């Protein structure tokens, strides 16, 4: 598997992107003429056993067949070179590409529909006891059906189980979407960082510009403080209770933030986003709280408008989340504290659901499941 992952089966079409750990190409599956996305890992691997222990594959295995999660189709491994490639379904674009060049913000109901789909995909992840750790617009992939786009969460290279105890990886996630506890500690955080990042994504979808485009870590924290406020010493002490050092050696005076209402006039939307970007992770909304917020109260009607364009499985999945809202504790987000239903973070490891990974195609020998 040198330049092309599998010369006999996949034909290279175009390079889609490159990152620190992998690059992504578009290729043609010559056996069925379907286009796919192939993630080529830069790290060499020694064995199939090592590959099957990858966290990314564990997440994808548990979320296989979920309509709002990008689906892994095949795993390619060249034992001689140690090269590994993951073959995924190909979607049309990502959420950032949808909004980046728009002359004005999306229509309110369309923005809400995208945000609801994003929340549902994150709920699918959290309900399976994983958190993503790199939520951003680029990691929500989109595919057009008629006049509607379906949204799927992708890129689980940073994902981990909720049961993993701190310290976790310190400089996780993209800076603009980092929660305060990532900036202020050396890895003491949990699933709440996904909610903060998703709140930033919601804001960006509704306004067409990022909420916290920090130039560096200090600037990032200052931008957060301006909007979210600066909590008291007791909150800082609790957030940093297990920190061995302070990555940002700066002290801040307690102050009240300006909130997001200046940019987002819909009160239900602004209240929801403010609940998601609460400085204190204990006061931050859970993904169930987000789905139960007043902003999404009319999602049933919106969903019926696009029903004819959506694939049946995606419609049923979203309809299921709409139906479950009645069973969720209703939370009207406020700038002050929240009464939230906490998600378990201990003793709930991801369970084996009996679903197998795609066959690992090993070059030069019999395929292994």
From TrEMBL:
Gene Ontology MF, one: ATP binding
PROSITE patterns: PROTEIN_KINASE_DOM, PROTEIN_KINASE_ST
Residue ranges of every copy of the Protein kinase domain listed in the record: 10-296
Record has Nucleus as a keyword: no
The UniProt record lists the keyword Acetylation: no
Lineage top rank: taxon: Eukaryota
Keyword terms of this UniProt record: ATP-binding, Cell projection, Cilium, Flagellum, Kinase, Nucleotide-binding, Serine/threonine-protein kinase, Transferase
Pfam families according to UniProt: Pkinase (PF00069)
Record's protein name: Long-flagella protein, kinase, CMGC RCK
